[in-house]
User: Which sequence fits this backbone?
């Protein structure tokens, strides 16, 4: 017997960055909102004096329990998908704040080119530049239209940065100055400038100074402890939903958070969502929460999976490219770059912060000529000083034995004498890259797992080698005595960490035939259902996605408030 609760104005599924922003904006306007989070409560006090690399970085304390729910993966449709049994390529956050708690804090704006990628590519290079099977499309919104929402997110999060010389125009400066420069950052910046490139300090959600945001939330400055990625911040210096937007929503008295609440279906009648059904994981009880407006604000896989399990929207069909739910799954070409070993320089790389570094965008987007290159788009190149924790970091030059006396001697020699310059490439969608429900494997509740069908394409291989070569050039200019550069990008494999930047599956656009949501992230098929997050990305850029997720969340919140007043389609 399902327990039915009283109706509320809005129910939110997943209380991370997107859910926290939506809740904050809606409750400030007087709407009654329930946030359903399947994980547990989290707070800053949980991380006091807990710099435990083994517990958090290697045993994944903040991540989803894969024994209860995971994903399945295959490289192509000719092979059988198998469950991901241990963490590798990406990390799925769990609990209040979601992946927004354990992120590094790099907060970029996608380039103007990204939002009109198909039109701009054809305009400059012609249709033949787009390879067969690549399904890039414009997003149904321009950078200029989204810019005010980028600005809003950066002010709420207190992003520390300096203007990107090759980025889109800004309406205001970053709210806080850029972070400190380490000696290695200075070396990278100097080398890049000598190569006629345009370096700038990474825009960071790790505060460079104490800051009070427009909602009155005050936070302390970063201590450069080096425990950001895979960790919660004990100082509250790293912007995350738990210390920024969620407290604002709770203060209104209009926001109720229910943790340990695993949403399993979106309920609907005709072309309207009527609420959700979720299971209280502490009791096993099934509960129905009716609502006037339903908002999916989960991670990419969860948003897509819920829509497919609830029979909402048209499932994507890779054989002919029709349908939209599950379409244009994209990842990131983040594996590679170059490592430089220095015989006469020693570095302190243990101090750092998740978003401490210097970036160049000379090879990102369409900032360079692609006429004679075997790929479109590009990626950023970066020296990032996130803090090299001792268990995970032990690089040696190529040709070094992998064990024994010589390995130990070389490890000790270069322990503080090597630097990595990395690239993060864009990921273009292809007709045969998609998400659907696995026909075989199920979760602890008997619901099907989400299945990924994805592999690196020739586009990705060409891009990775190109960017790695540029990384090597910078390290040589920095004075490295030995440089190891990525030579080949092999098939995608799910066992090695690359990034948690999964995108697509519920993509935005201007045409209901080719997209699932409009530019307010309102579903074309069900106007009181909004799907917010990186699932809306029609491709993945050469950047971390969180800044664009934040901007789209503020736009979606505006759209939900408009819908609450007037109803109907917003575009």
Assistant:
């Amino acid at each position: 017997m399902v327990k039915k609760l009283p109706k509320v104005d809005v129910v939110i599924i997943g209380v991370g960055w997107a859910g926290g922003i939506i809740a904050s904006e809606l409750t400030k306007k007087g709407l009654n909102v329930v946030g359903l989070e399947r994980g547990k409560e989290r707070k800053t006090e949980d991380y006091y004096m807990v710099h435990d690399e083994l517990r958090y970085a290697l045993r994944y304390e903040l991540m989803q329990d894969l024994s209860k729910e995971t994903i399945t993966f295959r490289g192509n449709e000719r092979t059988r998908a198998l469950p991901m049994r241990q963490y590798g390529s990406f990390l799925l956050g769990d609990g209040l704040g979601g992946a927004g708690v354990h992120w590094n804090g790099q907060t970029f704006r996608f380039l103007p080119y990204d939002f009109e990628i198909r039109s701009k590519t054809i305009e400059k290079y012609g249709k033949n530049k787009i390879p067969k099977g690549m399904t890039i499309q414009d997003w149904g919104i321009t950078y200029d239209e989204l810019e005010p929402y980028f600005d809003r997110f950066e002010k709420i999060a207190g992003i520390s940065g300096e203007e990107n010389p090759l980025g889109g125009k800004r309406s205001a400066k970053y709210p806080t100055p850029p972070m400190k420069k380490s000696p290695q950052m200075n070396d990278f910046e100097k080398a890049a400038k000598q190569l006629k490139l345009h370096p700038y300090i990474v825009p960071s959600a790790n505060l460079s100074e104490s800051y009070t945001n427009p909602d009155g939330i005050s936070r302390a400055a970063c201590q450069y402890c080096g425990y950001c990625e895979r960790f919660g911040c004990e100082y509250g210096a790293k912007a995350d939903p738990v210390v920024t937007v969620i407290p604002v929503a709770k203060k209104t008295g209009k926001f109720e958070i229910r943790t340990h609440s695993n949403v399993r279906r979106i309920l609907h009648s005709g072309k309207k969502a009527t609420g959700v059904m979720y299971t209280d994981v502490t009791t096993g009880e099934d509960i129905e929460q009716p609502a006037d407006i339903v908002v999916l604000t989960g991670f990419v896989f969860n948003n897509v999976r819920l829509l497919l399990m609830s029979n909402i929207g048209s499932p994507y069909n890779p054989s002919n490219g029709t349908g939209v739910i599950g379409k244009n799954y994209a990842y990131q070409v983040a594996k590679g770059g170059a490592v430089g070993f220095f015989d006469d320089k020693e570095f302190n790389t243990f101090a750092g912060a998740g978003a401490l570094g210097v970036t160049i965008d000379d090879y990102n987007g369409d900032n360079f000529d692609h006429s004679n290159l075997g790929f479109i788009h590009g990626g950023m190149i970066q020296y990032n000083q996130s803090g090299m924790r001792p268990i995970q970091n032990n690089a040696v030059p190529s040709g070094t034995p992998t064990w024994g006396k010589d390995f130990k001697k070389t490890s000790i020699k270069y322990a503080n004498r090597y630097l990595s310059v990395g690239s993060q490439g864009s990921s273009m969608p292809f007709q045969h890259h998609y998400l659907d429900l696995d026909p075989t494997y199920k979760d602890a509740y008997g619901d099907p797992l989400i299945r990924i069908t994805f592999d690196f394409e020739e586009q990705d291989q060409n891009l990775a080698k190109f960017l790695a070569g540029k990384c090597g050039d910078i390290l040589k200019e920095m004075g490295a005595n030995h440089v190891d550069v990525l030579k080949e990008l092999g098939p995608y494999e799910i066992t090695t960490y690359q990034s948690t930047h999964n995108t697509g599956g519920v993509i935005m656009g201007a045409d209901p035939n080719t997209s699932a949501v409009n530019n307010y992230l309102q579903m074309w098929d069900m106007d009181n259902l909004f799907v917010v997050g990186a699932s809306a990305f029609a491709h993945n850029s050469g950047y971390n996605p969180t800044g664009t997720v934040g901007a789209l969340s503020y736009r979606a919140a505006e759209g939900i408030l408009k819908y609450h007043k007037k109803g109907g389609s917003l575009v």
Observations:
- The mean pLDDT is 96.
- The two ends are 40 Å apart (CA to CA).
- The longest helix spans residues 458-478.
